[in-house]
């Protein structure tokens, strides 16, 4: 058996008037991630971790910004396509771990829903997906034109 580890990172500004979709879950919140797709930084980080582990192109190369096909697209669709490509390479997804940091919504109340949703999208069990929420402690405000942002970092393990 060969094991491959991959890492992924993503960040999006949080702006008013955007649906707040994180980890594939829509959270009631006055701001949401801005982006060409739905801006779900959690799913984007998970996707890049999977692509990295499988030795495939990164997310931005597969789904270029500005492609009208992916305008406001649910990132679940992108992640499902990434999982398909990883599986075609002969890999099985062993587990996913992801940290999401934001001064937007509290993540903890939505953690289980995110784990379940990511598991569903990838076709793996909820226990093989972990999500941890962190506060940015106000540190993002100075660096983001929008005043706040969401950042996500993920790691995954594949076996073949
Ligand atoms: Mg992104």
Structure, explained:
The chain is an alpha+beta fold and 160 residues long. The protein has a single domain (3-159), classed as 60s Ribosomal Protein L30, Chain: A (2-Layer Sandwich). Helix content is 28%, strand content 32%. The chain contains four helices and seven strands; from the N terminus they run ββββαααβαββ. The chain has helices spanning 41-54, 59-62, 75-88, 111-122; strands at residues 3-16, 20-22, 25-27, 31-33, 92-102, 129-134, 149-159. It has a five-stranded mixed sheet. The protein has a two-stranded antiparallel ribbon with strand order 2-3. Helix 1 packs parallel to helix 3. It is globular and about 45 Å long. The mean pLDDT is 92. Magnesium ion binds at residues 10, 12, 35, 41, 44.
SSE blueprint and pairings:
Layout: E1 3-16, E2 20-22, E3 25-27, E4 31-33, H1 41-54, H2 59-62, H3 75-88, E5 92-102, H4 111-122, E6 129-134, E7 149-159
Parallel strand pairs: 5-6
Antiparallel strand pairs: 1-4, 1-7, 2-3, 5-7
Helix pairs in contact: 1-3
Bound molecules: magnesium ion.
Magnesium ion binds next to strand 1 and helix 1.
Report the oligomer: single chain
The average pLDDT score comes to 92
Large-scale geometry? globular
Radius of gyration using CA atoms only: 15 Å
What name does the CATH topology carry?
60s Ribosomal Protein L30, Chain: A
* Spatial gap, N to C terminus: 6 Å
Q: What is the number of helices?
A: 4
Low-confidence stretches: none
């Amino acid at each position: 058996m060969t094991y491959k580890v991959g890492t992924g990172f993503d960040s999006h500004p949080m702006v008013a008037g955007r649906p707040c979709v994180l980890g594939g879950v829509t959270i009631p919140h006055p701001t949401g991630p801005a982006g060409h797709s739905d801006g779900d930084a959690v799913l984007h980080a998970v996707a890049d971790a999977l692509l990295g582990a499988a030795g495939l192109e990164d997310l931005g190369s597969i789904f270029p910004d500005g492609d009208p096909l992916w305008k406001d697209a649910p990132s679940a669709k992108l992640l499902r396509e990434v999982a398909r490509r990883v599986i075609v390479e002969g890999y099985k997804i062993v587990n996913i771990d992801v940290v999401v940091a934001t001064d937007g919504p509290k993540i903890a109340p939505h953690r289980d829903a995110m784990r379940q949703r990511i598991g569903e999208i990838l076709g793996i069990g909820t226990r093989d997906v972990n999500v941890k929420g962190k506060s940015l402690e106000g540190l993002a405000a100075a660096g983001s034109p929008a005043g706040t942002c969401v950042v996500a970092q993920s790691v995954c393990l594949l076996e073949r």
